[in-house]
Amino acid sequence: MEKQRIVILGAGESGVGAAILAQKQGFDVFVSDFGAIAGRYKETLVELNIAFEEKQHTVASIINANEVIKSPGIADSVSIIKELKKKNIPVISEIEFAKRYTTAKTICITGSNGKTTTTMLTYHILKKAGLNVGLAGNIGHSFAAQVATENFDWYVLEISSFMLDDMYDFRADIAVLLNITPDHLDRYDYKMTNYAASKMRIVQNQRPEDHFIFCADDEETLKALKSTKVNSQKCPFSIRKKVEGGAYLEGNNIHININPKDHLTMSISELALQGKHNIYNSMASGIVAKVLEIRNVTIRESMGDIKNIEHRLEHVAKISGVDYINDSKATNVNSTWYALESVNTDVILIMGGVDKGNDYDMLKDLVKQKVKAIVCLGKNNKRIHEAFEDDVEIIVNTFSANEAVQVAYHLATKGNTVLLSPACASFDLFKNYEDRGNQFKMAVKEL
């Protein structure tokens, strides 16, 4: 019998992981990347003798596939995807593909903001509780590669809306939706309803024994829930009101009441991750832990000793009484809102980059209250100037991390915070947000 042919578009972490698993499952595998393939990924493909091409998509070698796995970064508007859809060749995500070959249970975490932190915290709690657990999705090593080479009972998966768009039969045992705020609207015809519908795919195929954890304070989530059928058990969390079968804040205490006989109460002062947004993230992770019947003492310990993740409100240094914070992972306006909300001093804000159709209105109040100068870091800063010229006296353009840090250093006075929280993607001047954050940190250390 002829081997089924799987073509993989994109040869990054997820694409190469999918190739490893597809080869192991006996498929005829071909990998195609429109850009150049990074050295370590190319080595893996060569070592495993997997056919590949780079810097092009040869249509004839792709449209003979039985199924195509595409990288989440490739939009449906790309010509090769249109061609595949015209020919009714299924296009799926690496997550969808990998789930077919594992019996492990999955905890899937999505949301416009906070998903990396919540994913890391959930993984940290489960690992501390002694569960045999893997970490994958938008973070760490590819899910497919781990399915091919590891044997975990549980996976904590960080899932983006782009991944969800190409997931069909996948089922999350526990689904977490943190919030829905405008992000990546360029991929959703600039329609919030399209983006929200994409996020709600996290509950598709769930059964009554599964759980759906969501924020009862998030308007867009509540709106989307009205038109979504949810078969699983709903577990809301809120810092504004008391909720049943979920988590809520009362005074300074988080209460998790999934199981009336085993209530968990914890003071927010015990949390290692501080700030309002992290109360939400901690509640979501705490509910997951209680659904899995992890002991309260383990949950408390884990929430108290987790280290903050790199590039997310990461404290870099204090120089001449000025704090420098790296929040390069803030690639949308809402993330920058959270960052500003969590800083209690006057701020020199470094922002800018590739604007994904941002609406800066939601930042205006916080910028008026806290920001004494904006240092733009990007090739085209026109929209930032237009948005804030009435709210901030000083707006400066810079074109490198080094220049931005130098300018911020001269604008800051003792007691201020220099905050890199760009609200934009990084691809105009940097490889990715990590590169932007690392260059910022290096520039700070050279001051």
TrEMBL record:
Gene3D superfamilies the record matches: Mur ligase, C-terminal domain, Mur-like, catalytic domain, NAD(P)-binding Rossmann-like Domain
Positions that bind ATP: 111-117
InterPro entries, A to Z: Mur-like_cat_sf, Mur_ligase_C, Mur_ligase_C_dom_sf, Mur_ligase_cen, MurD
EC numbers for this chain: 6.3.2.9
Molecular function GO terms recorded: ATP binding; UDP-N-acetylmuramoylalanine-D-glutamate ligase activity
Positions of the Mur ligase central domain: 109-288
Annotated localization: Cytoplasm
GO BP annotation list: cell division; cell wall organization; peptidoglycan biosynthetic process; regulation of cell shape
The keyword Transmembrane appears for this protein: no
Organism superkingdom: Bacteria
Pathway: Cell wall biogenesis; peptidoglycan biosynthesis
Function statement: Cell wall formation. Catalyzes the addition of glutamate to the nucleotide precursor UDP-N-acetylmuramoyl-L-alanine (UMA).
Entry similarity comment: Belongs to the MurCDEF family.
Record protein name field: UDP-N-acetylmuramoylalanine--D-glutamate ligase
Native organism: Pedobacter cryoconitis
Upper taxonomic lineage: Bacteria, Pseudomonadati, Bacteroidota, Sphingobacteriia, Sphingobacteriales
